[in-house]
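Students often ask what a holo structure prediction actually looks like on paper. The answer is less mysterious than it sounds. You provide the chain, you provide the ligand, and the output is a string of discrete structure tokens encoding the 3D arrangement of the protein together with zinc ion.
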Amino acid sequence: MKKAIVLLSGGMDSAVVAAVALNDGYDVAALHLNYGQRTQSRELQAFYDLCEYYSIQEKLIVDIEYLNQIGGTSLIDKSIPIPKNAVENTQIPNTYVPFRNGNILAIAVSWAEVIGADAIYIGANTIDSSGYPDTSKEFLEAFELAANLGTKFGIAGSSKLKIKAPLIDLSKKDIVLTGKELNVPFELTWSCYEDNEIACGECDSCLLRLRGFQEAGAIDPIPYR
Ligand SMILES: [Zn+2]
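The corresponding structure tokens follow.
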């Protein structure tokens, strides 16, 4: 059976991506990163719950505390307030973690080489997103090329590593609908940037999620303040 690594943050998009990878016929290995973010413990819980739900045996949890040392983002630095009700803002918000996806993908590529996975699934999305530059299609294509050039995947005759972003062109509404179709357990996921027990309902991540459920005519099963 072919194997894929899913970047499973514990958020709703990552859960839908895991469901898509399984539906594509892959044996899924799940990667989760702790980087000192405010909701680290809640996201890790969501990761474990989703792995249990999907019977994912192969898991890797990596602490990338150095992102905490680097800082520069409100997701980690509590002296920078997380923007509230600012989802319409067109600038890159301070919740952007500098090159986080680049760091995470690099770890995933290393792991893929070791465990023999030939695909990496990422929940990157450019439609209903906060406009982070490391989620763009161009970036992911360039990263895939770099990953193949810099690993054993690039040797002639070997299979190529694919970076798959099946949600890249979907609205949040369509992500919810795709998840519903694949019976994703949304109640196990966590998206809020700010809180660990009851979602704030005001950060970009909560607002995009709530709007997606609303437009899909569905109820978001997690608790909101
Ligand atoms: Zn929130």
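The mean pLDDT is 92.
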